[in-house]
Write a structure and sequence with these properties.
By secondary structure, the protein is an alpha+beta fold. The protein is built from 3 helices and 6 strands; from the N terminus they run ααββαββββ.
C-alpha cells in the first residue's frame, strides 16, 4: 500500500503530508487514521507506547472517546529525506465540560511507501475557558480559510 506524498520530501510535499495527517485526525475515524501507519509502527505518545497498527487504532479509539469536540491544527516545523517534524495544538472538552488546549511536537519517520513507521510525540495540556477557544469550525476538516497556528499566535 502506498500513501503519497512519498519521501524524500520537498517543502511542498512535507506541507501536504502534514495537512493530510491533520485532516485524517480531525475525522476522528481511528480505523481510517490507522491506515496511515506501518503495521509495525512505533509510537511514543506522552507515557503511552504503541508497537503496531492495531494498537495505534485502539489508542485513537480510546483517545477520541475521552476527548470530546476534538479539533486539531498541525504545522510543519522541519523536514529532511523521510522525516518530518510538526508542532500542533488541539482543543477538546472532557466529560465534565472542562475545556483544554493541548500543545505538542511530533517527529515522524516514513517508509518508502509513505506510511509512518515512527511517531514520537510530546504533549502538554492547558485548561482553558470555553470563551477562550480558538478552534470553532464544525467538527471535521479545518476549513482552508481558518488561520493556522502561527496566524493564531499559538
Amino acid at each position: 500500500m502506498s500513501r503519497p506524498p512519498l519521501p524524500p520530501f520537498t517543502e511542498e510535499t512535507a506541507r501536504e503530508k502534514v495537512r493530510l495527517a491533520e485532516d485524517g485526525w480531525n475525522t476522528r475515524d481511528a480505523a481510517k487514521v490507522a491506515l496511515a501507519y506501518t503495521t509495525d509502527t512505533k509510537w511514543r505518545n506522552r507515557s503511552h507506547f504503541v508497537t503496531n497498527r492495531d494498537e495505534a487504532q485502539a489508542f485513537l479509539t480510546d483517545k477520541w472517546k475521552r476527548e470530546n469536540e476534538y479539533r486539531l491544527i498541525k504545522e510543519l516545523w522541519a523536514f529532511t529525506g523521510n522525516r518530518i517534524a510538526v508542532r500542533y495544538a488541539y482543543e477538546w472538552r472532557d466529560d465534565s465540560g472542562n475545556w483544554f488546549r493541548s500543545y505538542g511536537n511530533e517527529n515522524w519517520e516514513f517508509n518508502e511507501d509513505g506510511l509512518m513507521a515512527n511517531r514520537f510525540a510530546s504533549i502538554n495540556d492547558l485548561p482553558i475557558k470555553e470563551e477562550d477557544r480558538k478552534f470553532r469550525w464544525p467538527q471535521g476538516r479545518r476549513p482552508d480559510d481558518h488561520p493556522g497556528l502561527s496566524d493564531l499566535g499559538l
